[in-house]
């Protein structure tokens, strides 16, 4: 036993045991590695299914309203009291306000002597309409408009009360009455109780900075305020003809100018009206469109900034992404030189030479991609410049020398990239609307290459 323990100990080597599981795992691993390699090295072509649709064109604009406005100034000092409602039409010589030098009219309000004023159903309807109109046009980003609305609503209520107070002027003593100046409208027009500095601005003086509502300042004329001689009392919009100026790019402005008239929807009340289109290229280098109206001025007489939507006809057709659109050059072949082959396929008779130098013709099958009254557009990868074509049943010849470019997309319905001519009806930054069911174009549900730069003509597509 002792002798046996003194022997050398050798490490036992396990034999390599390759079983079926290791073989299968190795094959799968190699397959995955090859697939990943091919994925990252292969050319990826994405398809797109063509569908009918229309373009979403941004037709909402913020406009600046321009009217014929006359500012009426005060000739005396005192407390002002209004009797005509804002937005009301007054005739020439009609009472609009009074200037109270003594302050007795103001004391009537301060002493609450007009508490029993009752508003008629018509008065309540006007106030309700004013509130509804403001709610429809409320913009959270322009919260300062809340204060303008507050002053306007307070002024409306006070003006209704002032009418009753005016009836009590006869009860004041004559000396006090002589200190009250009645102010009548110098001309007929719509009464507005605010100013903003745009009253004398013309359309050709509009600049891009004027559309910045954060810089816009509007002075509200408040009932019972103290005014001095030369201060503004109110203003009158004296003409029903008025304009809205909007800013847009020159190309879009030219499109509107060609239409001459455009339908406009006012977002404040969803009212629609037709406007005459004029394009202005002002001194600041920008393009503006002036929309001229002959109605609805009274509805927006107190608004300087008006949000509108241009109601234009939407083009309907096949909708394709702009990335799929490509240009390709083709030979122009007279129609008389295109014939039919044995399989009823289109082609041309190309002049060739035999080994003996004899002149003969060879039928070259080719697809037609577009046609005009005189010519067919033929693929230039099959023929070459300078090739002679023979007219069927004639000895006339035509040497290929002319070419032209078509706009189109690559159709992949048959498994290869086949160029199809398209006719663009309208286009925005992302999509184009093209005419459907043309002779050499696309139809709904055709599959095209999403990115035209990733494919060549007649290239086979592996989906």
From TrEMBL:
Record domain RND related barrel-sandwich hybrid: where: 69-236
Boundaries of every RND related beta-barrel domain copy: 242-313
Record InterPro entries: Beta-barrel_RND-rel, BSH_RND-rel
Key words of the record: Membrane, Transmembrane, Transmembrane helix
Chain ranges passing through the membrane: 20-40
Protein name (record): Membrane fusion protein
Top-level taxonomy: Bacteria, Bacillati, Bacillota, Clostridia, Lachnospirales
């Amino acid at each position: 036993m002792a002798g046996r323990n003194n022997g050398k100990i050798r490490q036992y080597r396990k034999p390599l045991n390759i079983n079926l599981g290791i073989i299968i795992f190795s094959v799968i691993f190699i397959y995955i590695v090859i697939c990943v390699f091919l994925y990252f090295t292969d050319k990826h072509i994405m398809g797109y299914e063509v569908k009918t649709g229309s373009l979403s064109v941004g037709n909402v604009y913020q406009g600046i309203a321009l009217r014929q406005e006359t500012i009426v100034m005060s000739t005396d000092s005192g407390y002002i009291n209004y009797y005509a409602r804002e937005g009301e039409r007054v005739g020439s010589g009609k009472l609009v306000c009074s200037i109270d030098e003594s302050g007795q009219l103001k004391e009537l309000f301060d002493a609450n002597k007009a508490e029993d004023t009752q508003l008629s159903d018509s008065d309540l309807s006007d106030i309700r309409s004013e509130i509804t109109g403001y709610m429809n046009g409320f913009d959270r980003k322009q919260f300062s408009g809340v204060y303008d609305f507050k002053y306007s609503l307070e002024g409306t209520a006070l003006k209704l009360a002032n009418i009753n107070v005016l009836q009590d002027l006869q009860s004041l003593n004559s000396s006090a009455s002589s200190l009250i100046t009645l102010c009548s409208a110098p001309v007929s027009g719509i009464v507005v109780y605010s100013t903003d500095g745009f009253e004398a601005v013309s359309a050709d003086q509009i600049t891009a900075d004027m559309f910045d509502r954060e810089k816009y300042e509007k002075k509200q004329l408040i009932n019972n305020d103290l005014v001095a001689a030369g201060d503004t009392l109110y203003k009158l919009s004296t003409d029903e003809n008025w304009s809205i100026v909007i800013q847009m790019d020159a190309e879009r402005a030219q499109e509107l100018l060609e239409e001459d008239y455009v339908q406009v929807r006012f977002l404040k009340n969803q009212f629609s009206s037709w406007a005459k289109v004029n394009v202005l290229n002002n001194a600041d280098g920008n393009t503006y469109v002036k929309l001229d109206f002959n109605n609805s001025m009274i509805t927006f007489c107190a608004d300087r900034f008006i949000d509108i939507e241009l109601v234009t006809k939407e083009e309907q057709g096949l909708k394709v992404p702009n990335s799929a659109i490509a240009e390709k050059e083709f030979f122009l072949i007279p129609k008389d030189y295109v014939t039919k082959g044995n399989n009823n396929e289109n082609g041309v008779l190309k002049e060739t030479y035999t080994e003996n130098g004899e002149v003969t013709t060879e039928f070259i099958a080719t697809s037609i991609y577009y046609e005009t009254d005189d010519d067919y557009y033929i693929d230039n990868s099959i023929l070459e410049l300078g090739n002679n074509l023979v007219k069927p049943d004639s000895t006339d010849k035509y040497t290929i020398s002319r070419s032209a470019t078509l706009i189109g997309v690559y159709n992949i319905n048959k498994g290869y990239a086949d160029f199809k001519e398209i006719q663009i009806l309208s286009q925005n930054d992302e999509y184009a609307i093209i005419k459907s069911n043309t002779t050499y174009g696309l139809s709904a549900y055709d599959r095209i290459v999403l990115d035209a730069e990733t494919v060549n003509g007649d290239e086979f597509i592996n989906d």
